[in-house]
Amino acid sequence: MGRRTLVRSLGTSVIGLIAVLGVCYWLKRPEHVFLPSLAQGLPAEFEKANETFKARINENFPVGSSESVLVRRLHEDGFKQGGPFRENPGKPEMYSASFVQPGFPCKLVWAIYWHAENDKLTLVTSSYTGTCL
Fold it and tell me: DSSP readout, the chain?
């Protein structure tokens, strides 16, 4: 293979790679990625987004409301429910649901934690976090 052919092949490969990476980046933009309705439209800054998310969860699922409604809504919105857990032995059993958006440079996680008795929520808390490079 001649030098010219090698340079042309390498150039074509580099251009192809850049095109593929560009398409991947374009598809990962927020408007192309599914987000639960509860997670949409949050501020760009994590601290403000976390506070907005918490307020949204508390507004949609206040203490005293139905646990089954919360579970159904989170399932419909794409959250994955976790099993019961205890923060520590003296605390009541809690449940959780989370939505994880893996990505580069940040992995984003929206999580909701709750406790209920007789289908009535007695505690609801939430968080929006990101792990970035």
Answer: --HHHHHHHHHHHHHHHHHHHHHHHHHTSGGGS---GGGTT--SSHHHHHHHHHHHHHHHS-TTSBHHHHHHHHHHTT-EEEEEE-SSTTSPPEEEEEEEE--SSEEEEEEEEEEEETTEEEEEEEEEEEEE-
Give the count of alpha carbons within 13 A of 75, CB side only: 8
Q: What is the pLDDT of residues 16-35, one digit of tens each?
A: 556 555 545 544 555 446 89
User: Residue 33 corresponds to which amino acid?
Assistant: V
Q: What pLDDT digit, counting tens, does each position of 67-120 carry?
A: 999 999 999 999 999 888 877 788 788 999 999 998 888 889 999 999 999 999
Query: Domains of the chain: which residue ranges?
Result: 1-33, 36-132
pLDDT of residue 7: 65
